[in-house]
């Protein structure tokens, strides 16, 4: 048995006898990319594409400097520092094949809370051409129901008054863009990679709102100089488990403290508008298009919403993973009915895409038995996700008098989930949401007022005032509380027992 080796640059030549490792000289890479928010997704997606580009097409200008803005990023900072930015990407195929590979594209990592000034300098450096973001749906600092920038956030207040002591992404972007302007450098591109429709437009709108309040002249420069391409990103990346870490050590004698696992599927569609050059990502399969909007809407409303449909209903029902949900005929059929009857009618025309095949492929991806994507990951931060993934679809169907019952059931189930905090077997649910307290408070009042949950305006807007929705929702929520579950309702809906009730 070989010696377990810690994944570091020094050990790479030995490790490369065990699994594929970077073949390029990492010391020679420039840091053209700075990425804010280095989670599992970034490491399975953008950093993977970048690794491929560097390795196969000599994209040596595009090494990545990771940046963490939150205290919680300390752990990834420490691990990546210790491992010289190296980590293992473990691709898990549906047939059971497992393909681990060491990624080398991240060459530095900086933690903003430790040293805000060095993060500003990195962003302001001439070497930096693109600043990409995965800061989560909640990180954009907009009010979910109105879409306006939330100036009440104390961190935003702080950085408006202290531009040299930024806290949020907006403070860091303005502080560094100001330095670039003053030094006569070109602006970088801001490339959002979050699951938000029109993510680039959103980043632009929010950054400009902030910059206008901080420094009007600078805001004008940003408006003219910075490009914010919209992009659609896709790769299912479950939370890393101890079993993944053990697998590498037991099978390959590699000690990697934080590998990433993912499915084989990967997709990135980006609008081709950049302020300061870009990697030739098309060489490694990225699609550059003039308008990404139809693609992102399709992905958010089918894949992400589909995940939430399964995750929330599955959590209450006691399923731990998305593939366990999909194996259940009722869940699988319910998901398809939601996609066909409620999500699809709201999509724009998609040239060259066979939607039926896309939906089939989602079902297959969700069914991958080796991914074991936990429903708790999917349900995490639902207060930021559902307004984007599900509620917009629901509102459009209310306007067009389309079907609403499938989405309404998910929202009613989310209320029950937030109230009870246990599944149907009485086992505690792992609820991760910044609004957990407010959601619980609103949900526990359901018995007195069936609409109490959907009166949370910051999430649902005026939904409780919509008579048709209120009627459907009241019926559903009362049935869930009476029956202590969702499965009968799901079956009834599929047998069309409820379909007609849903029409005005
Ligand atoms: C998931 C996404 O956050 C979620 O709930 O739907 O993380 C999803 O797995 C990715 O967007 C896949 O590309």
From TrEMBL:
One of its GO terms (molecular function) is oxidoreductase activity, acting on the CH-OH group of donors, NAD or NADP as acceptor. Gene3D superfamilies: N-(1-d-carboxylethyl)-l-norvaline Dehydrogenase, domain 2, NAD(P)-binding Rossmann-like Domain. InterPro entries: 6-PGluconate_DH-like_C_sf (IPR008927), 6PGD_dom2 (IPR013328), Mannitol_DH (IPR000669), Mannitol_DH/Oxidoreductase (IPR050988), Mannitol_DH_C (IPR013118), Mannitol_DH_CS (IPR023027), Mannitol_DH_N (IPR013131), NAD(P)-bd_dom_sf (IPR036291). Residues 291-473 form the Mannitol dehydrogenase C-terminal domain. Residues 31-283 form the Mannitol dehydrogenase N-terminal domain. The keyword Cell wall biogenesis/degradation does not apply. It holds the Pfam family Mannitol_dh. One of its GO terms (biological process) is mannitol metabolic process. Keywords: NAD, Oxidoreductase. Belongs to the mannitol dehydrogenase family. UxuB subfamily. PANTHER family: MANNITOL DEHYDROGENASE 2-RELATED, MANNITOL DEHYDROGENASE DSF1-RELATED. This is Mannitol dehydrogenase domain-containing protein.
